[in-house]
Amino acid sequence: MSVRKALIVWGGWDGHEPEKVAHFFKSLLDAEGFKVELSDSLEAFADLEKTTSVSLIVPVYTMSEITSEQRTGVTTAVAEHGVGLAGCHGGMCDSFRTDTEWQFMTGGQWVAHPGNDGVRYRININAKRPHPITDGICDFDVVSEQYYLHTDPGNYVLATTRFPTAGVDGPHVGNPCDMPQIWTKTYGKGRVFYNALGHHCDILEAESPREIMRRGFLWAAKGVGLP
Which of 61, 171, 183, 216 is 20 to 30 Å from 26 by CA-CA measure? Predict the structure, then answer.
């Protein structure tokens, strides 16, 4: 059996603790038998030989700019070679605000977090969308940034959060909704997984988010994962 490989590329805004999150994700993948490469340069994405040789690509990169060559290294690997893509929070869905193809691939783009950090809110598991990633996981509360996103209507939504949240004012208040927080989708031949949690690494280290990320990696990874 060939060794499963994963590429984690981290960087961008330091407030999201990209290096710490990248090493945490590496530990999850190490435990599942992956050979993991860490890179702090987007040039790793431009290496098509590298991106197409792995089972999984994990971006941990917030509020940055990507070249067309770098982005194409990922979109080609996922769409044409079936490489999985998985990530969380701004490290995947607020990575490159000017690149619409990246947003198309990932299934969403952050636009606001009313109340900023420290909001208590609930993650509601979607019982109507059973999936191995969320099987057996109950609704849970988080104190963090509550992500308001523009999302792909084709996403398979595994969990949502309710807006508005009590005590948090803002222009969103007149538009109550259940906002997708965890989803899967396909992009060409590849599987894509996203979890909106993860403003800081400790949020991801909690029991339910940790297990969701572990399963999400396995589900997305080419030739590996959960059904």
Answer: 183
This model's pTM is above 0.85 = yes
Report yes or no on 201 lying in a domain.
yes
* Rounded Cα distance, 108 and 10, in Å: 19
Residue 148 domain boundaries: 5-220
> Nearest-CA neighbor of 176 among 223, 114, 226, 116?
114
Query: What pLDDT is stored for residue 225 in this prediction?
Result: 65
d(C-alpha 78, C-alpha 193), whole Å:
12
Measured distance CA(93)–CA(106) in Å, rounded? 7
Which residue type is seen at 64? S
**Please, where are the H alpha helices in the chain?**
18-31, 43-46, 48-51, 68-81, 89-93, 100-106, 201-205, 207-220
Give the burial class of 227: count Cβ atoms within 10 A of its Cβ; 0-12 exposed, 13-18 middle, 19 or more buried: exposed
We report the CATH number of the domain holding residue 76 as 3.40.50.880
At 69, give phi and psi (nearest 5°): -65, -40
